[in-house]
Amino acid sequence: MSRNVTMMQFFEWHVEADGSHWKRLQETAKDLKKAGIGTVWIPPVTKGHTPQDTGYGVYDLYDLGEFDQKESVRTKYGTKKELLDAIAACHRLGINVYTDLVMNHKAGADETEAFHVIEVDPNNRTEEISEPFEIEGWTKFTFPGRGEEYSAFKWDYHHFNGTDYDARAERTGIFRIADEGKQWNENVDNEFGNYDYLMFANIDYNVPEVREEMINWGKWMIDTTRCDGFRLDAIKHINYEFLREFVGEMINKRGQDFYIVGEFWNPELAACQEFLDTVDYQIDLFDVSLHYKLHEASQSGAAFDLSTIFNDTLVQTHPTNAVTFVDNHDSQPNEALESWIEDWFKPLAYSLILLRKDGYPCVFYGDYFGIGGEHPVEGKKDMLDCLLYSRYHKAYGEQDDYFDDANIIGWVRKGSEEIERSGCAVVMSNSDGGDKRMFIGEDHAGEIWVDMTNAREDHITIEEDGWATFPVNGGSVSVWALPELDIEHTEDNEDDGCVAVPEGEELEANVVTDHDHHESHDNEPANS
């Protein structure tokens, strides 16, 4: 039986722009493996339009920190060599690496060009608010620092269908390119009428040579980085038909074990389901619906009905296509999609994604190591290490839910014979303290369980019939399990806020392939 696998998003928005991040990954990889992290999602590895750019203002897709362009050779995160060294270090430890691809737009063009546009209403991009007129737009990409190394393709306005700045008039707007009868791509999200356009110079996937170039680049990225998967950025703005073609080509090249997850930032479950239908369930999606439920629960306190926490979420309807997460770089404070989960609820939220059988959970770097910038946020490493340890060692076997109360819910994982001392009982409250009586199984009768989070000091003995009553503090979560050490030895192990984590224990290396993170993955919706 393979061990549970956890992904970490290995960056936050305010990682220092000093070129040290790839080195940091290489130096941290062993600790991540020890903590139970099996895969890392790293930020965009391509050259941005400034040395400080996070990678989402992408300039040159073929420059991974190798060419002197945009005021630097390195990217925000380091050089190409440092990137490849970090990926290799992860692979030696059995950690898979997913790279972040930004394919919606390009930024930092080398020259302007004159072409005709039609200005559209920002709130309804299908509504024209001007006659055609000429602008000068930043749409010509010649890559003087790289030349024709790796690709001779040069971008100009023919390859885009929209931009947001007229250099001649020095004004912003949303301008659809009107030459050659260009229109927005169909098969995109219908917010604002048509959400093809997001920012900068918008790539036009109606152009055949663009589709060919981007597919060739994806294959080059696989060959060059030897990554194990992609995270696709902003896919609700990209022609879904192209995405299906792109994903198919990548899997054909690398094999079925090549993993792809998309950022489809739409809390409406029906839209997510429609997208998965379009791409034939070849990729997973981040469970944005669940994120917003967690956010609401953290703000509402006891007024939120915890028994409904998974209603209308992707992990409930499509568990084998859902990547569950608590927060990320976009939802962190002061960012574009700020919806930060309150501190008191973070342990509950992470228990809900890490200790259940469904979904592929992703831990946020900002929650683990902290957030930098002008408004720093302290990390919660000790808390997360406890839950990661419980996921790796305890959260196995049949799951029974006790979602029978609005304020105190629980579930059990009955354990697996193949993983010694496995099984756990999780109980949480968003109001007053209490308890939950749950059945863990007669096989566990007589075992003495403790709270792995150290929130409570009780010792719970599993009764002869396999039942026990598991307490929880108010506004808290407790994870009850059989400790790895004898009870008398756990009393001295409380300083780090986590019970029964043997000092220096190494988690076994586990190379993840072919969607091993799922208990099953048949590329079909769970409830079709």
Please provide a written account of the structure.
By secondary structure, the chain is an alpha/beta fold. Helix content is 22%, strand content 24%. It has 11 helices and 27 strands. It has helices at residues 21-35, 80-92, 208-225, 240-254, 269-278, 288-300, 314-317, 346-354, 365-368, 381-393, 487-490; strands at 6-9, 37-42, 47-48, 58-60, 96-101, 105-106, 111-121, 124-128, 133-140, 160-166, 171-177, 201-203, 229-232, 259-262, 284-286, 322-325, 360-364, 370-371, 377-378, 399-402, 408-413, 424-429, 434-439, 448-451, 459-461, 467-472, 477-481. The strands form 6 sheets. It has an 8-stranded parallel barrel with strand order 1-2-5-13-14-15-16-17, surrounded by 4 helices. Strands 6, 7, 8, 9, 10, 11 and 12 form a 7-stranded antiparallel β-sheet that branches. Strand 14, helix 5 (269-278) and strand 15 (284-286) form a beta-alpha-beta unit. The longest helix is centred in the middle third of the chain and has 18 residues, at 208-225. The radius of gyration is 24 Å and the shape is elongated. Residues 488-496 and 500-528 have low confidence and may be disordered.
